[in-house]
Amino acid sequence: MSENYHLDTLAIHAGQEPDPATGAIMTPIYQTSTFVQSAPGEHKGYEYSRSGNPTRTALEELIAAIEKGRYGLAFASGLAAIDCVLRLLNPGDHIIVGNDVYGGTYRLFERVYARYGLKFSWVNQTDLEAVKNAFTPQTRLLWLETPTNPLLALADMRALADAAPGDVLVGVDNTFASPALQQPLTFGADIVMHSSTKYLGGHSDAVGGVLALNDEKLYNELKFLQNAVGSVPGPMDCFLVMRGIKTLTVRMERHSYNGLQIARFLEDHHAVKQVIYPGLESHPQHELAKKQMNGFGGMVSIILESPEAAKRMVSRTKLFALAESLGGVESLIEHPYSMTHASTANSPFPVDTALVRLSVGIEHVDDLIADLRQALE
Ligand SMILES: Cc1ncc(COP(=O)(O)O)c(C=O)c1O
After folding, report:
1. Is 149 in the pocket of ligand 1 (CB under 6 A)?
2. 3-state DSSP call for residue 145?
3. Which residues are catalytic?
4. How far is Cα 120 from Cα 126, in angstroms, rounded to an integer?
5. Tens of pLDDT along 133-159?
């Protein structure tokens, strides 16, 4: 498939040639654990579905194409994808991480990998000097989320990738933006990661994770770990993520349109103390957002007057469902302090107790605004 195709075209076709055997337009779901061999080691490219499965191969090629990388890898969840990256490291290695991340990422790093001798520095990734000062001779990985979950802070990917010493890998969790809004490898990142549970899948029906990258040696190491550790997705989930990606660019346009309208509505609402959305002029990194993103996405965070007001609001919406997760076509609302980010409560960066996070879906924006208005009454 030509790399020169636009993203909209790649999203529908890359990795997904019609099935040569039958002509099926949609990639078959190869629901099989193993593959027959004509003699030991003689097979058609697949031996066992942990090591490789044709439906997963199609998803991995698709991910590489839409992230402008050479290689893709798919996992059973977003955390499994991050886990695979950390397994590249050795005890004593040092990792710099932004100090506003998904709660599960914090939990994986500090409660699992710290026990195996990895050392983490949690740094404000919006402060280039602070990140530069955090590098030590042991630093092997700079891990960024942009926009962050849940405070929607950006990382200046180009500046940070340039600042990282040559032997430091730069990884970007691109879950909130998706490749429709930004492609971190083009800004100098070494590895891009997604929870494909979110915008890539887009329909809240599959849990998954992916990595994309360019370097062949690094790919071989990660591919080895993917098989050696074994947190791979099943073929049905790969199929669902691929089907979701076909409409990614169209969905992201609507998510971004709705997100901006809702952020503006909330900014004018007397019950809302602060609205955080990269598309608003009031966002401290709005200029950077315009520079490195093609749209601002569907995630909007707000701070209300009190934790009680936040809990009241999230319990009163009718269209916005109170649920963890994000990135689906349907709108979701949640209270990070008691839900997605409960695991950061004892961290150096607990989330605000009055914070509410919205995942704005692609319903009609007037209906969504009416729902929020009545919930805030
Ligand atoms: C930014 C971000 N990264 C990683 C993850 C983890 O992904 P998963 O839940 O698919 O393991 C999430 C989940 O919410 C997330 O929001």
Report:
1. yes
2. strand
3. 50, 102, 173, 198
4. 17
5. 999 999 999 999 999 999 999 999 999
Distance from C-alpha of 156 to C-alpha of 168, rounded to nearest angstrom: 17
Vertex 167 angle, CA 162 and 170, to 5°: 50
Q: Rounded to an integer, what distance in angstroms lies between the CA atom of residue 302 and that of residue 192?
A: 27
Atom of ligand 1 nearest to the CA of 324: 14
What spacing in Å lies between the alpha carbon of 204 and ligand 1's midpoint? Answer: 13
* Cα Rg, the chain, nearest whole Å: 21
Domains and CATH numbers, the chain: 7-246 (3.40.640.10), 248-376 (3.90.1150.10)
- pTM across the whole model: 0.98
Q: Whose CA is nearest to atom 9 of ligand 1?
A: 78
Ligand 1 proximity of 182 Cβ (cutoff 6 Å) = no
Tokens of 69: 């990388």
pLDDT in tens, 193-234: 999 999 999 999 999 999 999 999 999 999 999 999 999 999
